[in-house]
Amino acid sequence: MIKLIASDMDGTLLNEKMEVSERNIQAIKSAKDNGIEFLIASGRGLSEAKPFLKDRVHPGYITLNGAEVFDSEENMVSSNPISKKSKFKIVELFHKYDVYFEVVTNKGIFSDNKELRISSLAELLMSLNPGTTYEKAYADTLEKIKLTPMTFVDSYDKIFDDDSYQIMKLLAFDSDNKRDVKLEPLKDEIHDLLTDVVVTASSPNNIEVNSTDAQKGIALLKYAKTKGIKQSEIMAIGDNLNDASMIQEAGVGVAMANAIPEIKDMADEFTDNNTNDGVAQIIEKVITQNEMEGQVE
């Protein structure tokens, strides 16, 4: 019997309009009404993730790939920042490969280039929703960016020199969409030089760097333990590399129809794509199966 469901956002819970559909909202409500804990497990920060639900449901949150975890009342459960030594080395490598990057801290999210922020998100939206034109993605991004609390700065120097800022996640984007030219070599070099960070991705045009303790799978198991929920009673739903750890660790790992091949290869079950309410479909299936198992018992 499934007692906890964790779902990724981009490419999973969010549809092609970067919205949580009505069916997905109702499925989350039904899960909670049927005694199933629900978690958002995202690379986004809490302030980025919350607006998409418009206060219609109140799940727990694994944010920033596991760097921060919150319960359904938004109390922080855990925090895992990048070490001081590693944060400087990562930024040095970002500059070496000449990539645009953003900084997520315990005091908010920062960018040093508004135009690259918008274009990078538009490219992410295109990659997650094949068939969407750049013009449409750019227009949608201009609207959605209003929901994202973001501070634009001229330089990141103050943030990195002030120890009161904990670096929770670093994101690098490749605007040329030539992953094998910049992002893959960058990822490999970070992996070779640093042992206390992990590099994942939420789309073809980015990489995301976190502390090794900040992974969705680790955070999911720790959260479940606090609730007395067994590993076999956990379901995780995702589509991309930053979902891999929770797909592997959950008792039931679910791949979206639009998931990358690596995620599909490790999944136990499959559901429809993000444009057809795949999350709602698998939640509805779980509720039915739980009811049947309850009747047998």
Description:
By secondary structure, the chain is an alpha/beta fold. The protein has 12 helices and 14 strands. Strands 5-4-3-2-1-12-13-14 form an 8-stranded mixed sheet, with helices on both faces. It has a 6-stranded mixed sheet with strand order 8-7-6-9-11-10. The radius of gyration is 18 Å and the shape is globular. The termini are close together.
Distance, first to last CA: 11 Å
Number of β-strand runs: 14
Strand content: 15-25%
Q: Give the overall silhouette.
A: globular
Q: Please provide the ordered H/E string of secondary-structure elements.
A: EHHEHEEEHEEHHEHEHEEHEHEHEH
CA radius of gyration: 18 Å
Level of helix content? 25-40%
Classification by helices and strands: alpha/beta
Low-confidence stretches: none
Helix count? 12
Main beta-sheet annotation: 8 strands, mixed
Instruction: Order the strands across the largest sheet as they lie in space.
Output: 5-4-3-2-1-12-13-14
State mean pLDDT (0 to 100 scale). 92
Topology of this structure?
Blueprint (H helix, E strand, L loop, with lengths): L3 E4 L1 H5 L8 H12 L3 E5 L4 H4 L10 E4 L4 E3 L5 E4 L4 H13 L3 E6 L2 E4 L2 H15 L5 H11 L6 E2 L4 H5 L5 E7 L9 H11 L3 E4 L5 E6 L4 H11 L7 E5 L5 H6 L2 E4 L5 H6 L2 E2 L7 H19 L1
Short structural description:
This protein has 297 residues and is of the alpha/beta class.
Descriptors for this entry?
6-stranded mixed beta sheet, 8-stranded mixed beta sheet, 297 residues, 40% helix, globular, alpha/beta
